[in-house]
Amino acid sequence: MNVKTVLILLGLALATIFALVCVLLTRGRAPSTCQHLPPEQEDTEDGQSLVFADLTPEEMAQVVRYLQGNLGVQLVDASRAKPSDNCIASVDLQVPAKAEVLRFLDGGGARPAREALAVLYFGNQPDPNVTEYVVGPLPRLAYHRDVTVQKYGGKVPYHRRPVTAKEYMDINALIWRELKKAPQFLTTCCESDGTDLAILTTAPRGFKSGDRKTWFVLFHNVAGTGYYLSPVGLEVLVEHRDLHVSRWQLRKVFYNGRYFASTEDLEREFLARRLEVIRLKKPQADAVLGSMRPRHPPDSLGPLQFEPQGPRYNVRDNRITYQGWSITFGMNPNSGPRLFDIRYRGERIVYELSLQEALALYGSNCPGGMSIRYLDGSFGIGRFAYELVQGLDCPYTATYVDQHYLVESDTPKTNQNSLCIFEHDSALPLRRHFSDSQSFYYGGLRKNTLVIRSISTLLNYDYIWDFMFHGSGAVEVRVHATGYISTSFLHGQGTNYGNRVGPHTLGTMHFHHMNYKVDLDVDGQMNFLETQDMEYEIIKDPWSMQNTIERPYLHRKRPEREDEAAFPLNAPMPRYVSFASPKPNKWGHPRSYRIQIISFTGKHLPINSSMERSVSWGRYQLAVTRRKEEEPTSTSVYNQNDPWTPTVAFADFINNETITNKDLVAWISVGFLHVPHAEDVPNTVAVGNSVGFLLRPYNYFNEDPSVDSPDSVYFSSEQEATACGANPLSCLPTAAACAPHLPPFHFGGFLNL
C-alpha cells in the first residue's frame, strides 16, 4: 500500500470520526436544552411556613362541628338564617402572636397552637350581638375563648354585622312586592313589572349608630352584560334593622330628581300626570350599553410567555422560593391577600405584608350614588377572589392555587385557581450599560420578576392585586382597577358629579383608596425611621470666591415619635423614607429599606365628617407606629355598617409613642381619583389606573445583589458574542424551540356562585 492510499484512508477515517462526533453532540444537545429542569432547591424549612397556613376545608368543618356541639345554643346555617337566629358567620385562621412565631421560626421554640377565629351572629338572644371566639387547638379541639371584649373593648352591637346574602334576598323580595304597587308607572318608564330589574346596594346604611336604612338603586338587567350602566332612575330606601323581616319597610322612593313617600305615592303622581317620566326601552343583548361580547372574530394569536425548561420558582404548601426569595402566602376572606415571613438571601425583610381595606367613595345627585362609601373588606375582598382565567388574568403556564373559605355557610367553599404565581419577563433591562469609551463592552440583566396575583370582583369593580419580587432585592406592590363603573341616572345638574356616558347614564366621580400593613423587620425587629430629602445652600465657589453656586445637600432626619412619622395625605413628604437598622453595612451606613409610594388619590373625607374616624387610616399616605398585637388591623368589617362609632379607629393607633429602635409597622395608603368618561365603557381599563408602593434596599447590601444572578449578560468587543456558553442570549434560538405542551383550557369559576 503506497503512501497516497494511506493518506486517503486516514482522511476518510478522520472525516467519519468528525461526523460521528457532530451527530452525538447534536443528539445530546437538544434534549439537554429542552429538558424540564427542577427549580433550585432552597427549601430546608421543613414545613415551618404552615404556622401561617390558611385553614383547610376539613379544619373549617371541624370547627363548625365543635361550635354546634359546645356552645349550648341552637345554630342555624347562615345561608338561611334570619336576623333573629344564631349562626356562624365565618371561620378563619387565628394568626399566632408574632413573639410565639419568631420563637418557633428563629429560636427553636415550640410550634404555636393552631387556632381558628370564629365569628358568630347571636340574634336569638335578649341582647343580640356579634361574638368572636378563638377555637383550638387544631386538630383536636378542646376550647373556645370569647375574645370580643379583649379585641374591641366591649361587645359588638348586632346592627354592625355585615349584611348577609339571605338578608339581601329578603330585601329584594320586599322591594319587588312594593314595586307591584306602581304597575303602570313601571310599564311606562321601564317596560318592566319590576321583577326583571337588578337591585344594587349602597353603604353605609343611614346617618347614625343603630341605623340600618339602605338606598337601593334599580337597573335594567340584561343577561350576559353588566347592568351597572343601565340605571332606570328609580331608587328606594329600605329600613331593615328589625330582627323580624315582616316589619321591614320601604321608607322612601326616588325617581328622576323627585322623592316620594311610597310606591303608591309614585303611582298616584304618575296617574295624575304630575310626574315627568323618561321612557326607556328595555335594552337588547346585542345592543346594550356596556356589552363585552367580541365584535370581531378571533385574529392571529398574540405573544405567549412560557418557561423553556419549566418554572424557576418552587411552590410547596403555602411557601414560594425563587432566586433567593422566600415568601409565605395566604388569603383572608375579608381583607384579601396576605404574605408573611418574606426573606431574601435567608434574611427576613418583612414579617407581614397584607391588604387591609379598599374604600370607594362616590359623588352624585341621586341618593344612592351620593351615599356610597363602600368598605370592601366588609363585603369580602378575599372571599370574592374568584377563579383566574389562564392566559388572560395570568400567563397560561402560571401556577394556580385554590383558596378555601367559610363565610355565611356551615359548609366550606373553594375558589379554585384563584391565586396565581408566575415569573414575568417585563421586556425591560433591570440594569444595563453600553460602553462606547475607553473600552467597548455591554453588560446587563433582564428584569425578571416573581409575581403573586389574585383578582377580586367586588360588585362592579375588579381589583388586580399584585405582589412582585425583583432580583435587586426590591418588593413591589401594585393594585390595578378595572371592571364596570358605577353609574347614576342622568338628571338635572348631574354632570357636576361626572360625565355622561350613555343616553341616560351618568358615570359618577369617585376615588379608590387602599390601605396596606407592612411589618418590616430590617436586619432584625428593632428599627428606626430615617427621612432624607434635598435642600439647597448658596455658597461662594471655593476656587475663586467670586461666584455663587446653588449646591444641593442631603437633609437627614430621624423622626422619634409616632406623631412625627404620620405623613398627611396629599401633603409634601420626604422623598426618601426608610426603615433602618442600628447595624451598618460595609460602608458605615444603617442597613435600610426605603418605602417609595406611587399614588394620586383624591381628597380624604373632612375630619369633621361623622364617619371619618372609621376610615381615619386615609388621613395619611404613610403612618409608622409601634407594632402591637392589640392593633392587628387598621379597620374592621364592622366599620361599614356603623362608621359613626367605629369598632376600630386607626387614628387611635397614633399616640406619640417613641419609634426609635422598636418593632415598627408602616401603614401605607394608595389610591386614585376616577372621573368616568366615555372610554370607561364597557370597562375601565387597567392602563393608568394602577397605584402601589415599593420596598427598596437602601444601603442594606454592600452592592446590588443582582450581580450574582446567573441571568447576567456581558460581552466585549474582544469576545465572540454569539457563543452560547459566554452569552445566554445566544442560547435563545435553541431554547425557543422548546415550546411547552399546554394543557387544555379549563374554567370552572361559575360553579361556586
Automatic annotation (TrEMBL):
Domain Copper amine oxidase N2-terminal residues, every copy: 72-142
Enzyme class, broadest EC rank: oxidoreductase
Gene name in the database record: Aoc3
Protein name in the entry: Amine oxidase
The EC number(s) this enzyme carries: 1.4.3.-
Active site feature: D376 (proton acceptor), Y461 (schiff-base intermediate with substrate)
Listed Pfam families: Cu_amine_oxid (PF01179), Cu_amine_oxidN2 (PF02727), Cu_amine_oxidN3 (PF02728)
InterPro entries tied to this protein: Cu_Am_ox_TPQ-bd, Cu_amine_oxidase, Cu_amine_oxidase_C, Cu_amine_oxidase_C_sf, Cu_amine_oxidase_N-reg, Cu_amine_oxidase_N2, Cu_amine_oxidase_N3
Domain Copper amine oxidase catalytic: 305-706
PANTHER family in alphabetical order: COPPER AMINE OXIDASE (PTHR10638), RETINA-SPECIFIC COPPER AMINE OXIDASE (PTHR10638:SF4)
Origin species: Neopipo cinnamomea
Cofactor, how bound (note): Contains 1 topaquinone per subunit.
PTM annotation: Topaquinone (TPQ) is generated by copper-dependent autoxidation of a specific tyrosyl residue.
